[in-house]
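Subject: Sanity check before I submit

Could someone independently write out the structure tokens for this chain? I want to compare against mine line by line before I put it in a report. The sequence has 402 residues.
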Amino acid sequence: MKRNISVTHWITTLLLAFVVLSCVEEIDIDEEFKFEDVIVIEATLTDEKKIQEFLLTRSYEFETKGPIPEQNADVRIVVNDGESILFLEDSPGVYRSEIEFAAEAATDYQLFVNTNEGRSYQSPKVQLTNSVPIDNLTAERQVNSIGNEIMAILVDSYDPTRQSNYYRYEYEESYKIIAPDWARKDFVVYRQDSISPDAIRPLEEQTCYNTVNSNSIIVTSTTNLSEDRVSGFSVRNISADDPVISHRYSILVKQYVQSLEAYTYYDILNQLSGSDNTLAQIQPGFISSNIRSTQDRNEKVLGFFQVSAVTEKRLYFNYEDFFPGEPLPPYFIECGRGAPPIVSQAVPPTYPLFDAIEAGLVKYLEENLNQGQLQGPYTTVPRGCGDCTALGTSEPPEFWEE
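---
Independent answer below. Compare away.
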């Protein structure tokens, strides 16, 4: 399963232009408008029995390709001031618990991190939040505020005890891909100047599947409502012309019940990520992490340690269910047709079709019966249009249902 894009990567992307403090105080923007290298700790325990996973990275500058992993750290959870559960580094910056376990109610959990450079960090003691099931997960064809048609994925849940109030959502969406220009034949290259459609292409290149995890912060609160009820909350809005819904689509939605502190943390991140002009609209410097340095109270730390109850629900639908008889959305890529010559008329000659095949750029479609000047004898399409494995995998997910 693909890992969710780290929420703390939002922090380093959005806030590394200015200092993020662990307490609220005014700062001089001109003085603080600079990159600062700080540790980023994303640590969420859940009540799912599994190998729990934490991410440790460093903030990074805009021109850097991605987060810098914090490697060779000692990471552990202490339970009720007694038992320690170690987290071992599975890959750079990714720490996984050495045992499967689920967070339990009325139990204190505390995070301790010691880096390879000798820096130490810890969280307060945190307990598991209340568990609230997802009552309904539905899809609905709608028109959004700017007049565009969408498919809205909506969640309903209810806590009659009114002990929850703060919710965060993640999703994992999977969808079927059918290559529109799949052909039964495929090229066989004998030499650079000798190519023929003599192979039989496997059916596995016609229908594929892809799974993508959410990469946004989705939070809501019921504190201003008369009941602790989430009703018709949209966790995903899919444009009606998005190719992910072209055939069969599935989404798994996870609902995390959060503490007020965790909700506030994520809500501020969400506001920052949605702001067109962060510096102009939101006073910078103000995400309150609950992880502190044990050696330097002024050291800035990004991230949050939380213990959340999680429930989940899966939904399937077909495009025909909501758009019967309507044209499919545009395909993922442009499927323009070409007919590269086998041998060019250049001096010395080049081999355009061979080069395109070797680079994995094209697939055979059909004979070019109306061959024009400077064209070859075969019509080709971009690889992704004739071979779905360029965009997904031929094996359906284990959970997939038709």
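---
OP: Matches mine. For the report I'm noting this point. The two ends are 20 Å apart (CA to CA).
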